[in-house]
């Protein structure tokens, strides 16, 4: 019996809208989910594929079998007719996913499926089949299409977003990108990696682009042109910011990528009249490296307006100083002098990371009236101490007594009984207050770090609650306080505050303006590092003054005795910084030999004979009271060099 659709008891004038609307709503929901979770998107696509195949097989299989065989048939033709039904069913299933349907043929000849309910159901599954096809195309080709569209927009339209180019896909770099994205989702995030990894889904799932082709890996001109870096600076006045982060675990590849980008950008815009490359103020670069001289090497190319080159160990050391600042471990009197006699640190391990942490602690723990002392426990100290003692030997020997610092190395196992005896001596269990401020565990093995740190925390007496026990791993620091009242805290070192040069240099640029008339873009990389170290110490100066001293202001109400103490503290920090950068004191006679009897003070100041950056010598690395002698030897006023230190502390001229 054939049933005409026009004779159905229920009109289909509006029923056909229901499956379409349902499919549209489902599509929107899936797209919203898929934008954030590609894995969920794929799972739903496979589910809709399965449901569409099952529903289509049942509907068309039953329908074509009914139409081919019918109620009255000869037995010798059943197999042949069923074969025809099977072929038609298979064809109908394929056409479902191509947008073609044969529903009317079935419902006209098969009364059982002619009811409007079944018509709605099969139309819904046809819509799901179309969605499955579209979703599959998007999943296979959508990434490439999106990359092409984004790159086309960046390359051809004069919009001014910020582009973040991140070289090296790892858990740390992706976490860093996610932090940036949480701050501003309108920026563009582009990852570059030499090959696909298991992290690809996470990168693209967060809305970032991922390039693995050779041009991208090389960081060459073709790649930079593709993403709109080259082409957006034609007049050097573009508002587009470009930030390059080289965060691969392979430091050699980081350096190579950064140099290639610098060369490509420099060559593209080397049209200044004097033939030099222009420095792009709105382009910055951050490079993780293990080469001591790479910072100067890439800085000398004068391409990036802001440049941050640092070892991963230095990144961790700065994070430690920021999260557990030394100035919070001491108290100051009304004249900005420290009331603690000793600032004691127990350092476990003496590998590259531990040595870097020690240098940063020395730089940031120079307080007037307080002696810094570190006890180093490492069973292989003699095998690892070579780089530190050769490059920063002045810290070990205190040759000129510019900073009140001592280091005691002990060749011990941190788990030994003798090591625990050392802790007893440092904590002074019979004293009301211990001089021990930190126990820092940097063995190079995260498992050993945690074991040692937790054992030390359990061993310390309950009334010793001022000691911070810090574990230093490759990507984070973990603070395990000795106090039973506090909980363990963990900090990621890959943060915008640590890795964004522009953000780090906001204060450093102001420091440079006080000390140097040279513009930030033209100063040496050593001066940039010095200004950054000064900026990191500002909170310590503020704490020492009890809040009286304010950076970059007149400070007219600060007592003179306090200002003098703050100036001396800044000088000690400056000396410690230079020691920790490998500098030594230039002999006074060597400085005097560079000036003649006819030189006037202005010419001497211009030549700066007391400085030799190439040999890492500086005549000002002397105790505070000896600066007057140096000033007179350089034919300057007696307070000349003290005024240089006080410039940052005392009221500014003209105020």
Give an overview of the whole structure.
This protein is of the alpha/beta class and 655 residues long. Helices cover 49% and strands 13% of the residues. It is built from 27 helices and 16 strands. Strand 15 (611-612) and strand 16 (617-618) form a beta hairpin. Helix 2 packs across helix 4. The longest helix is centred in the N-terminal third of the chain and has 41 residues, at 116-156. It is elongated. The termini are far apart. Residues 5-12 and 71-76 have low confidence and may be disordered.
Topology, please?
Layout: H1 17-36, H2 38-69, H3 78-96, H4 103-109, H5 116-156, E1 162-167, H6 171-183, E2 188-192, H7 200-205, E3 209-211, H8 214-218, H9 221-226, E4 241-246, H10 251-268, E5 280-288, H11 294-299, E6 304-310, H12 312-323, E7 342-348, H13 352-363, E8 371-377, H14 381-384, H15 386-391, H16 393-397, E9 405-410, H17 417-427, E10 436-441, H18 446-459, E11 468-472, E12 476-481, E13 489-492, H19 496-499, H20 501-515, H21 525-536, H22 538-544, H23 560-580, E14 584-585, H24 588-592, H25 601-607, E15 611-612, E16 617-618, H26 627-633, H27 640-646
Parallel strand pairs: 1-2, 1-4, 2-3, 4-5, 5-6, 7-8, 7-10, 8-9, 10-11, 14-16
Antiparallel strand pairs: 11-12, 12-13, 15-16
Summarize, please.
By secondary structure, the protein is an alpha/beta fold.
Strand order of the largest sheet: 9-8-7-10-11-12-13
Strand content: 5-15%
Strand runs, count: 16
- State the shape: elongated
User: Radius of gyration, rounded?
Assistant: 35 Å
Task: Kindly report the average pLDDT value.
Answer: 83
Helix count, per DSSP? 27
Percent of residues in helices: 40-55%
Largest sheet: 7 strands, mixed
SS content category: alpha/beta
Gap between N and C termini = 104 Å
Poorly predicted ranges:
5-12, 71-76
